[in-house]
Amino acid sequence: MKNRVLVVEDETFIRKGIILSIDWYSLDCDSPLEAGDGEEAIEKIQIYRPDIILMDINIPLCNGLDVIANTIEKYKYSVIIISAV
Question: Which of 4, 51, 60, 64 has a 20 to 30 Å separation from 74 between CA atoms?
Fold first, then answer.
């Protein structure tokens, strides 16, 4: 079974760039899901239960660290934090 990935980034250009620049299939991953804010991220985590999340810290509605703190224990995923200054 392939890994399920969620990319959480509020900047559409950056989120699409991450998704398009990685060969997900060679990494044994399905095409990634996407979320543009913290509330959408929580919803997608609850519904799709991703194995890996690439998480921006500075996102609207609920920051990335709060999303992680409120979901990681229940949904058990690996997280890679991404952030730009």
Answer: 60
